[in-house]
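Support request, please re-run this one:
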Amino acid sequence: MNFSPDSSPFFNTKSNKSPFSLDLLPNLPDDTIRLLKESGFLSIKDLVIEGPIEISARVGINIDDSIFIYNQSITFLEDLGIMEKRFTPATTLYHKRKKIGRISTGSKNFDKLLGGGIETNAITEVYGEFGTGKTQLCHTACVMVQLDHSDGGLEGGALYIDTENTFRPERIDAISRARALNPTKVLDNIVVAKAYSSSHQELILSESSKIIESQDIKLMIFDSAISLYRSEFLGLSTLSIRQQRLNKLVHTIMRIAQTHQIAVLLTNQVQSSPESGFAGNAFKAAGGNIFAHSSTYRIFLRKADRNRIARIVDSPNHPESEILFTIGESGISDPIKNKT
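Re-run finished. Output below.
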């Protein structure tokens, strides 16, 4: 898959008038800017997302020069208010976070658990066994993100990176109709990228900025983020390589979320955890400490008869708690209370 100006109908070629054009970086020779563009860096955001080591490797310049370019890019985005200043009063951060964008999950209970919905500039990870609602949450979020701000949306599109062949347009159709929305318009605002290997997944991620910018994407979904790595890197001999690549993957995802100010929702698989079985939870999220330390919010899903339970197990600002939700025609929603 290659989202290029010539091969993709979703990509609109940007002129040098772009507010993030490389030509706006000060103190860079024209030859350096030309090399950056020829190496696939189309905007200042691309430089920040990839980092100095990747810049050096792809452009063929020494690491000191690439660090200088990277720091110039960071400063540029700081001046625009896209990234935080190096030294910022806590009160400024507090007032800024009160205005941060959030996407409704479709369930008031679930939204309350997350402090208002799926947060932008952050990674929200959900994990659980098969059938606990991970993919249903992803499909519902694709619809909800397109709603007005007053209805819990961000009036933007969704990028759905599908690694397990789980995306179903007919499910989007059903959720849209159940929520009195035009399914054709909703589907038009969802871009799907199917990944067939871990390297293909990384390629899609490296080219995602083009789609995010041109399609006004406000939500990026990985369903799931780790499955291809688990299927390709088998045994202890490959564990180190797998974890290195996963580490780079999740940090790139976080930089994309921050530079583009979008929400990221990723699903994760589970693995047996015999040591915690007596505590009532015999599973833990796959990916080890890499994912445990990289996700901003971590939610564990499990079945509860016909309903589902979502438990927040890791968050920088939420207490550990759980709620009940259900899955129906409208996607994720709250259980119907029995009248007494």
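The chain has 14 helices and 13 strands. The longest strand covers residues 297-304.
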